[in-house]
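User: Teach me something about this protein's shape.
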Amino acid sequence: MRSAPRVALWGVAVVVPLAFLGVFFAWPVATLVGKGFVVDGHVDLSGFADVFSAARTWRIVGLTLLQATLGTAVSVLLGVPGAYVLFRCRWRGRGLARAVVTVPFVLPTVVVGVAFRSLLVDGGPLGFLHLDGTFAAIVLALVFFNYTVVVRTVGGLWERLDPRAEQAARALGASPWRAFRTVTLPALGPAIASAASIVFLFCATAFGVVLVLGGIQYGTIETEIWIQTTQFLDLRTASVLSVVQLVVVSAVLVVAGRARSRRERALSLASDRPVDDRRLRLWHRAADGTRSPWGGDLVPALVTALVVVVLLLVPLVNLVVRSLRVDGAWSLASYRALGTVGDRGALSVTVWEAAGNSLRTASVAAAIAVVVGGLVALVVSRRPRRRLGRRAVGALDAVFMLPLGVSAVTVGFGFLVTLDRPLGIPIDLRTSGALVPIAQAVVAIPLVVRSVLPVLRAIDPRLREAASTLGAAPGRVLRTVDAPLAARSLGLAIGFAFAASLGEFGATSFLARPDAPTLPVAIFTLIGRPGAGNYGMALAASCVLAALTAAVMLLAEQLRGERQGGEL
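Assistant: First, the predicted structure itself:
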């Protein structure tokens, strides 16, 4: 029989995250959706017929699916060669290249949008392509953002694959391409499917990138929800679109969950340490001494180099260069202007004050996300013996992934509708400023779970059983077994939570008070105001936000490295 302290401990670990998710996610989303289907106190589902009878709806749904499909396909096609070069082969400078590839994923979406717009706008380095405000620009920006997901997910499995199966195929006469196609690619299938599912999810729910680069001309379900709620106050249409998005997200999460479980089983058959079985060889040397690029690493190396330099580095370098150019000359005027409110009072506070607001709210949001997400990861990492328990754990894992896909706009507007006096408490949270870090924490919790969960799942359950057998209480087992190992991922979890909160824009655009905007909100405001001075400030502010985000992730990686080094 389980002891009372053990039951109480796990009860708290389950109830606290569920209560947080229920109050600050499920309730606002359900209330907002419900308002669109309840008319005069009666359920009215005619909104579905009205919304789906409009040609605009089908155009938006079609653009959303097309954008997500193309973004996913290009990310996978470019990411698989990158995973091979960066994780399977050994070469000098690989660590630096991995760090560069990671930067785009942690950048705020508003910064990505501004970086590509400054590159493609008339007068920009690639302005002659006339891609500014086009669908192609949105897809390129989405690939820029999600390339890391494919490289990291596929590369993490590839570097641990046993190379002997492919080597055996080569020894039996198979060409390098055939050995890859028939042996390696099927083994990588679960990881590729998992990465593709996640990228599709991110592309389908992109908000800041689409809003900055495409506006309403290439609107998606996400941006349409924002337009219907902020400009037309049409809750019925927004509710229908939120339901459609929720269905799509749920389907993608199911696919991702199945692919992830298959991938975990595959990893159990691989080596526990990176293989790194070969050096990077650009040319294949045949038996007669001739060299050929086919069979060597030249093609994947060239593809990876082009992607890293042209797609990843050029937009970021151009953003910095454009922020330092004023009237055709080098100048720090745009950075000095960050201490003002912009031309014609574009902002209510200075950009530096907005940056301070972002840092404060992100600190609170990261703390909330780490506590709640850590509890979720702790519970989900367990493997109950009973089938019902395993299903409950799997359901809890899936539920806490939903904030990744549900519209942040829906969450933000739902906060405004429901949290004037939550649960009868005589406090109007909408005017307190507390809702911004809470909304950011809701978005960051899934990232914390995904950072901590793999480490907790890797702990041998026999260690916990041995500690319990020796008389350790449940709390002591957690302190002595789980906590030291989970600390390896804690720095990265904090970094991801802080970075996600720092750049969150969808919900924050609803909730940030006019006198206390965050840095992404200030950047978006500056972009929408006329004047070269405001645009220069937007470029400079984007550089500041990118630098803050990169610094946070660098510190997180250092903390992670120190802990790992200490343990080894």
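Now, about its shape. The domain at 1-44+324-568 is CATH 1.10.3720.10 (MetI-like fold). The longest strand covers residues 38-39. If you'd like, I can walk through any region in more detail.
User: That's plenty for now, thanks!
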